[in-house]
Amino acid sequence: MPDRVLLTIGTKKGLFVAQAPGSRGTFTLRGPFGRGVDVYASLIDTRAKKPRIYASSCNPFFGMKILRSNDLGKTFEETKSAPAFPKEDGRSLKNIWSLEPGSDEQDLWCGVEPASLFRSRDGGDSWEMVPGINNHEHARKWQPGAGGLCLHTILPDGERIHLGISTGGHYLSEDGGRTFAPSNKGIGVGFAPEPLPEWGQCVHKIARPKDAPGRLYLQNHGGFPDRPGIGVVRSDDHGRTWRSIAKGLPSDFGFPILVHPHDPDTVYVLPLEPMTRTCPGGSPAVWRSENGGGAWKKLARGFPQKETFFTVLRDSMDIDELKSPALYFGTTTGQLWMGHEGGEKWSCLFESLPPIHNVKVAVV
Amino acid sequence: MATIHLPTALRKYCGGAADLPVSATTVRAALEELERSHASLHRNICDETGAVRRHLNIFVNSDHMRDRQGLDTALAPGDVVTILAAVSGG
Questions:
Q1: Is the minimum CB–CB distance between B61 and chain A shorter than 8 Å?
Q2: Which has the closest alpha carbon to A133: A90, A107, A171?
Q3: CB contacts, 8 Å: B45 with chain A
Q4: CB–CB of A87 and B10 under 8 A?
Q5: Longest dimension (CA), chain A
Q6: Contact A61/B40, CB-based, under 8 Å?
Q7: The predicted structure's pLDDT at residue A3
Q8: Nearest C-alpha of chain A: how many angstroms from B75?
Q9: Cα A229 to chain center, whole Å?
Q10: Residue pLDDT, tens place only, A275-319
């Protein structure tokens, strides 16, 4: 049995760390770290023998910081620097939305607002801008969504790197990040006259199974009655083309999307009612497909059946890698839920945290 | 020499000091002096473009700099430049 399951919970008031034995019996909570400051991104980096935790600390007064822990989230310190645009660029950091591991133990990617990508080769102490996307001819034309103009998804896959930008779309590099191109064929929009533009989609999140080359799942901004089904799509050719897999869902609007760690055909979404962005009918449910989006099953055992209107944001759902994995999600009203046995049964781990922006899990 | 008086939250970026002496004769030059002497402290006060962060206020003695000449407000020996976080949040 593994030693422990670790959760990082990024909130409006700082980062919390929850820890349980490998049985997931009881989670104990510590924090908040980076007290009083929004945490939109966290990463439990298990590449090295000694895991590290990273978190963004998005301070409206004093600017953006990266926090780092070398003791499984008992203490945190600021890295020596945070991503920053060169002075002559004219842009300034508004938020840090994503932290992802790169190719070796010290290599990190960071997605920010305004939508841009940075890379660190020394575990977060120094950062360089990635000009292939930051200076892309589209970069100054992307428009912010309700959450801001954010680069929220970074999925390295060998020399390929997939990016999710809201509102910009899916951008793909096939040369290790030197150049990027929009790759959105089949991803629709409901907020512009052209239904299938080359770029400008409001991508909410992208997920990539490890063991199915070329497969990607994407939660797009759906919920448009005149353009049904554009909200949940799939690619089987590394994101070059996409097709809808939304049929059977109660709503194609939502934010997170997840893949089962051991089965590339099992994918999870959390549909929300598009106008309120809360649980359809006041009845929360995660929906699971076990055939790559061909059919969907409602998973609601353990949730309240009515009068529940929470919201789950794009980075607030994750899944662990145990043999029978558990899902975890946090709400903007501060509940942290765990879905046992692949989401078959749900229980609330914490009921009254600050509004949750981000949840990550690792078995360490 | 004028003095820059720092809020508690920023003192960790300059070895715990609450006050830093500067030889500059304007607020702008004082911030530039900070950028050279305490780069990480300066980054907390100004963004990458050099603009003072939106939710910070800078006072020269008792006056908000915007009520004088902004960043061009002159500093005389003995003046105190106080940097404070604005009242905001939720």
A1: no
A2: A171
A3: 62
A4: no
A5: 54
A6: no
A7: 82
A8: 24
A9: 21
A10: 999 999 999 999 999 999 999 999 999 999 999 999 999 999 999
Which domains does chain B show, CATH number per domain? 2-85 (3.10.20.30)
What is the rounded end-to-end Cα distance, in angstroms, of chain B?
A: 38
According to DSSP, the β-strands at A356-363 and A108-113 are: unpaired
What's the rounded Cα separation, in Å, for the pair A302 and A226? 34
pLDDT in tens, A248-281: 999 999 999 999 999 999 999 999 999 999 999 9
Angstrom distance (rounded) from CA B59 to CA B65: 5
Query: What pLDDT digit, counting tens, does each position of A126-170 carry?
Result: 999 999 999 999 999 999 988 899 999 999 999 999 999 999 999
CA–CA dist A42, A277 (Å, integer) = 24
Query: Within 13 Å, how many C-alpha atoms sit on residue A82's CB side?
Result: 31
Residue with tokens 């930051």: A134
What does the block give as tokens for A240? 């070059």
**Tokens at residue A281, please?**
């009918």
- What is the strand order of the sheet B19-22 is part of? B19-22, B2-5, B80-85, B56-60, B63-64
Q: Which helix (H) or strand (E) holds A357?
A: strand A356-363
C-alpha pair distances (Å), B54 with each of A96, A150, A200: 17, 20, 29
Distance CA A41, CA A19 (A): 18
A126 close to B (CB below 8 A) = no
pLDDT digits (tens, 9 = 90+) for A166-189: 999 999 999 999 999 999 999 999
Written as six digits, the tokens of A87 are 């002075």
Contact A63 B88 (CB under 8 A): no
ipTM for the assembly: 0.90
CA pair distance A188, A220, nearest whole angstrom: 8
Determine the residue of chain B that is closest to A13 in CA distance. Answer: B90
A81–B53 C-beta distance less than 8 A: no
